[in-house]
Request: fold
Amino acid sequence: MNAKNLKGIFMLYEKVGRNDACPCGSGKKYKKCCIEKTLVPEELADTKLGDFLDLFAMIAKYGAFIMREEEFHDVLTGCYEEIERDFRPGQPGGLHESFCMNWFFLDFRFGTYQKTIAERFTESIHYKSLNSDERYLLSRLTNSYATCFEVKEVQREFIIFKELVTKKTWKMIITGEPYQKDAHESDIWFCRLVGTMDEAWCFGDPYIFSKEAKKDFLEILKMNIDGFKEYMKTRSLSFDPIRDGSKAASMFWAEYLYRSNNPNREHEARFKEESVRQPHMVTTDKEKIIFCSVYFKISEKEGLREKIDNLPCVDYDAQNKTWIWFKKGNKTLSGNTILGSIEIKGEYLVGQANSLERALRLKSKLSKGLGSRVEYEKVEGKDLASLPPLSAEDEKKFAEEQKKIDDDPVLNKFIRQHLEDYYLKEWIVTKIPALNNKTPLQTVKTEEGRLRLEALINRMEKMGENMPDETHFDMDLLRKKLGLPHQNSDKKCF
Reply:
């Protein structure tokens, strides 16, 4: 498929009048230039592959239209810009343009109901103008996906493929492309076939590997599909594990194929550029890490502990004889954020925080909350960069102390109970911007709301995967509380 540059497609969504100059810079009027162009080369105009390309052009124009809608504009334009930036379609070393265009229009799911642009086209008014043959071809195109095939036989007019995952046999018609003439038995093709198993066409340029790649690719395909099956268990939407799992894995393959086409030094350069953008470590609030201590002289000990206990967002840790100062989990992150600690040391009340901003907020909190019982003295702090490196002995000691904390059943029980109380009692009645400022309990009452809630909880779960086990909350408890499908459920959703 000789696809033109992606930018040519997206010119169709620009707010340009029919009689205005075409945004492509040709000097012609828009109505005489890009608005009339299709993706179909002349030599394919009267073939079934040409029919598929015609339908793809209609889908692309429809996609350009919905990009103007406020609901989808940001997600679609952002996605397009990300493809251009990360994978340089059509440029030396970049991905095939056809790969990126196929993914964007046929595979990329977005919105509450997680539908592709092609699927949305089948529900549009434009679909009604198609005849039965066109609708059939459109369904084959919409449901197609890119995956790995093994070349079983090369004939004069056909190439016989076996799909690695399903083991289905496909008969692909040769159209004279150079890569088809060079096909060899046992080669592995990563490509998209459209049509039927008895009459199929390669829709876009393939990526071709030697037979040695077969074993690794089988493992990758299985891993991607198994991962998608786990995702399916958390959604009320209907998915096909092979088709939709393959579509969902497209960006994995994009990264894999892009890296395969580029030397390692390019990725090292990208990594260095990203490192330069982060000159110092920061907290979750984007504040530079500086370990600070806030000192208060205790003026009145009587009733001081009770006063601290009653401070908002402060809990006592009996095991370590200190108070934990925390911020309740925000609307997207799972779990609360520990901001610092408070401890009585002899005649002093000492607060600890890992940024100057947090230390000053803690100073204000304690001054207002404890009143005349304490008298502020000073704030001391050390920049992370100024700290001397740990000796081997100190590192070992630190590791041992950390293990004691990780293995402490009392502390772990306290953290788990705290997270459970927050999510199952507080979070579900909190108004959340991602849910249109409704609470999860309100949102779950409608079909669309349930889908939004499922997607949000999945994102929260994904973001919490790298957190330590002792601060990890089992999101299936939250799903169960809200009556949503969860990973340990036997419920089928396809």
